[in-house]
């Protein structure tokens, strides 16, 4: 430390050595790097674990992967056990896309209302309501679906109430806040100069929204929809309570059905670790992970195309 | 009684007062802008010059809490009096903003945006509008081979000229410019200024600028705004060489602002 006195040369003061190094800087950096490493390690560990477990049905139990994915016969406990999960993939994709189909226009419409038509009301009333909706646990949605929606469907529509339709309705309500929130952020982040530019050319507000703002926000709006779909795809509990959980491909949206997640949650508890059925459930988990990765890739691709 | 507006008067503003809630932003503004003239509005920040130019196409209505009294006559029609059709007004009164604000679409689509919403559908007609307006703003040679590429890829000066072309595409009588060169480099600024001198052959131009050299270079008339008042409004040459008001003299000689 003697060298760090006033008389020390410029070289001694400017060149970092053990003595004058900014140690708080080093510590801070180490701290946040550790956090990042733990995050990455957790993700990689889960992926490896799931892959290792999920691939066993193909490599240990010799189930043919193509047959597993495409067969419609799911009968894991019968005498001629058969493991075809196509109905569940179908069910998962069906509830996901159908709920996104309903939630997308509703959510984007609400977002436009909040950002363009009535920002004050949107901020004061609509936004808190939507945030509240996000916070409701999925079991509550499922329970309300079971007690209110299923009987309603049974009384007024074909089928016994438990149905793909009920699952879609519950999921739509669940993903609507996600879509709306992200879409609202997307609309609000558009520069005001776009609105001014369009209005100054004599466009009406509606023309401005339709021809300038929505196209400009399109990548972000699609991101909102995809994130909503990812949530719908991964939801298990609420869907399980209303969808009926049968193993056939539904003939209509009022038929009972099942999704990958509902089958996993229903069965993982009563199968023994290492059994074929248990392994096939892990494989479903792996498929869920892969499809989630695809969703994320789509989101990343879309945000790369953002224009403004 | 004001003098009856002559035929070539585009804007006749009489005793215009404007408040943002309680703030009195424009006080008894009187102005007359004529066709084939460049009217410059100068003044220090916060003097109301940007507010004023936004009243001329009623873009000011986008701001919350605005209240106005007086008259803004556009071609003998008072914009404050009756229910004015904003669509028609803004088709005839184009506006250019501080920073080029092209839509994130192709160059072509930017220009045909106005004509399309005002009902022109024929492809050949739209093609012609694109070519003429781009030639008017001297951008045609630079972009004619990439009309279908995104306008966001243009430089700042090119974007601003594209926005001028976009405004011209709706065949306005007036072009309002709110500090159109404040975000541009000197060369792009020069191009825009040359362009304005060209444009005044066909249009009435009102420009807000904080650049006094610019005002003296290009404009025919200049109004000096201070604290919401028009201190002096007259021929540009007179205002800069022989100002009547002491405050004008102080401002143009750089003693404040």
UniProtKB/TrEMBL annotation, chain A:
<feature type="transmembrane region" description="Helical">
    <location>
        <begin position="30"/>
        <end position="51"/>
    </location>
</feature>
<comment type="function">
    <text>Part of the binding-protein-dependent transport system for phosphate; probably responsible for the translocation of the substrate across the membrane.</text>
</comment>
<dbReference type="InterPro" id="IPR035906">
    <property type="entry name" value="MetI-like_sf"/>
</dbReference>
<keyword id="KW-0812">Transmembrane</keyword>
<feature type="transmembrane region" description="Helical">
    <location>
        <begin position="162"/>
        <end position="183"/>
    </location>
</feature>
<comment type="similarity">
    <text>Belongs to the binding-protein-dependent transport system permease family. CysTW subfamily.</text>
</comment>
<dbReference type="Pfam" id="PF00528">
    <property type="entry name" value="BPD_transp_1"/>
</dbReference>
<dbReference type="GO" id="GO:0005315">
    <property type="term" value="F:phosphate transmembrane transporter activity"/>
</dbReference>
<feature type="transmembrane region" description="Helical">
    <location>
        <begin position="85"/>
        <end position="113"/>
    </location>
</feature>
<protein>
    <recommendedName>
        <fullName>Phosphate transport system permease protein</fullName>
    </recommendedName>
</protein>
<keyword id="KW-0472">Membrane</keyword>
<dbReference type="GO" id="GO:0005886">
    <property type="term" value="C:plasma membrane"/>
</dbReference>
<dbReference type="InterPro" id="IPR051124">
    <property type="entry name" value="Phosphate_Transport_Permease"/>
</dbReference>
<keyword id="KW-0813">Transport</keyword>
<feature type="transmembrane region" description="Helical">
    <location>
        <begin position="281"/>
        <end position="302"/>
    </location>
</feature>
<dbReference type="InterPro" id="IPR011864">
    <property type="entry name" value="Phosphate_PstC"/>
</dbReference>
<dbReference type="GO" id="GO:0006817">
    <property type="term" value="P:phosphate ion transport"/>
</dbReference>
<feature type="transmembrane region" description="Helical">
    <location>
        <begin position="125"/>
        <end position="150"/>
    </location>
</feature>
<keyword id="KW-1003">Cell membrane</keyword>
<keyword id="KW-0592">Phosphate transport</keyword>
<dbReference type="InterPro" id="IPR000515">
    <property type="entry name" value="MetI-like"/>
</dbReference>
<feature type="transmembrane region" description="Helical">
    <location>
        <begin position="212"/>
        <end position="233"/>
    </location>
</feature>
Automatic annotation (TrEMBL), chain B:
<dbReference type="GO" id="GO:0005315">
    <property type="term" value="F:phosphate transmembrane transporter activity"/>
</dbReference>
<dbReference type="GO" id="GO:0035435">
    <property type="term" value="P:phosphate ion transmembrane transport"/>
</dbReference>
<dbReference type="InterPro" id="IPR003439">
    <property type="entry name" value="ABC_transporter-like_ATP-bd"/>
</dbReference>
<feature type="domain" description="ABC transporter">
    <location>
        <begin position="11"/>
        <end position="252"/>
    </location>
</feature>
<dbReference type="GO" id="GO:0005524">
    <property type="term" value="F:ATP binding"/>
</dbReference>
<dbReference type="InterPro" id="IPR027417">
    <property type="entry name" value="P-loop_NTPase"/>
</dbReference>
<keyword id="KW-0067">ATP-binding</keyword>
<dbReference type="Pfam" id="PF00005">
    <property type="entry name" value="ABC_tran"/>
</dbReference>
<dbReference type="GO" id="GO:0016020">
    <property type="term" value="C:membrane"/>
</dbReference>
<dbReference type="GO" id="GO:0016887">
    <property type="term" value="F:ATP hydrolysis activity"/>
</dbReference>
<keyword id="KW-0813">Transport</keyword>
<dbReference type="InterPro" id="IPR003593">
    <property type="entry name" value="AAA+_ATPase"/>
</dbReference>
<keyword id="KW-0547">Nucleotide-binding</keyword>
<protein>
    <submittedName>
        <fullName>Phosphate ABC transporter ATP-binding protein, PhoT family</fullName>
    </submittedName>
</protein>
<dbReference type="InterPro" id="IPR017871">
    <property type="entry name" value="ABC_transporter-like_CS"/>
</dbReference>
<dbReference type="InterPro" id="IPR005670">
    <property type="entry name" value="PstB-like"/>
</dbReference>
């Amino acid at each position: 430390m003697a060298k760090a006195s006033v008389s020390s040369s410029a070289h001694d003061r400017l060149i970092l050595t053990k003595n004058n190094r900014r140690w708080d800087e080093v510590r801070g950096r180490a701290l946040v790097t550790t956090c990042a490493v733990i995050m990455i390690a957790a993700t990689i560990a889960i992926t490896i674990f799931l892959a290792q477990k999920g691939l066993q049905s193909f490599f240990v139990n010799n189930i043919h992967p193509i047959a597993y994915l495409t067969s419609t016969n799911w009968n894991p406990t019968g005498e001629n056990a058969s493991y075809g999960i196509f109905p569940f993939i179908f069910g998962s994709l069906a509830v996901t896309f159908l709920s996104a189909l309903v939630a997308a226009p509703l959510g984007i419409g609400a977002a436009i209302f909040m950002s363009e038509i009535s920002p004050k009301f949107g901020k004061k009333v609509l936004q808190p309501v939507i945030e509240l909706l996000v916070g409701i646990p999925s079991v509550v949605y499922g329970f309300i679906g079971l007690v209110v929606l299923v009987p309603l469907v049974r009384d007024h529509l074909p089928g016994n109430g438990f149905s793909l339709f009920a699952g879609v309705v519950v999921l739509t309500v669940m993903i609507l806040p996600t879509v709306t929130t992200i879409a609202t952020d997307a609309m609000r982040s558009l520069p005001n100069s776009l609105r001014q530019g369009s209005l100054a050319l004599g466009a009406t507000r509606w023309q401005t929204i339709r021809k300038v703002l929505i196209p400009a926000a399109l990548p972000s709006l699609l991101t909102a929809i995809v994130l909503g779909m990812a949530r719908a795809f991964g939801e298990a509990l609420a869907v399980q309570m209303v969808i009926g959980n049968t193993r056939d491909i539904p003939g209509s949206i009022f038929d009972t059905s099942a999704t990958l997640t509902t089958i996993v949650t229903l069965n993982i508890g009563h199968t023994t670790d290492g059994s074929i059925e248990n392994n096939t459930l892990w494989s479903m988990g792996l498929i869920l992970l892969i499809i989630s990765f695809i969703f994320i890739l789509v989101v990343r691709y879309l945000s790369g195309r953002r224009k403004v | 009684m004001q003098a009856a507006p002559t035929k070539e008067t585009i804007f006749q503003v009489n005793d215009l007062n404007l408040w943002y809630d309680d703030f009195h932003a424009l006080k008894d503004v009187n102005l007359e802008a004529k066709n084939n003239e460049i009217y410059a509005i100068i003044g220090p920040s916060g003097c109301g010059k940007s507010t004023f130019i936004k009243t001329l196409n009623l873009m000011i209505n986008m701001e919350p809490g605005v209240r106005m009294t007086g008259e803004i006559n556009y071609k003998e029609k008072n914009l404050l009096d009756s229910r004015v059709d904003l669509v028609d007004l803004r088709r005839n009164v184009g506006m250019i903003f501080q920073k080029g604000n092209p839509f994130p679409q192709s160059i072509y689509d930017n220009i045909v945006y106005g004509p399309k919403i005002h009902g022109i559908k024929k492809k050949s007609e739209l093609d012609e509008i694109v070519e003429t307006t781009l030639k008017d703003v001297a951008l045609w040679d630079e972009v004619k081979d990439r009309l279908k590429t995104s306008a966001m890829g243009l430089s700042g000066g090119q974007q601003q000229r594209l926005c001028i072309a976009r405004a011209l595409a709706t065949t306005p009588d007036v072009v309002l410019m709110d500090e159109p060169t404040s975000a541009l480099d000197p060369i792009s600024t020069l191009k825009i200024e040359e362009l304005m001198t060209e444009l005044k052959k066909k249009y009435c131009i009102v420009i807000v600028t904080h650049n006094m050299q610019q005002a003296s270079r290009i404009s025919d008339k200049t109004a000096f705004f201070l604290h919401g008042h028009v201190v002096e409004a007259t021929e540009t040459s007179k205002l800069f060489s022989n100002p009547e008001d002491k405050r004008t003299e102080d401002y143009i000689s750089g003693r404040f602002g």
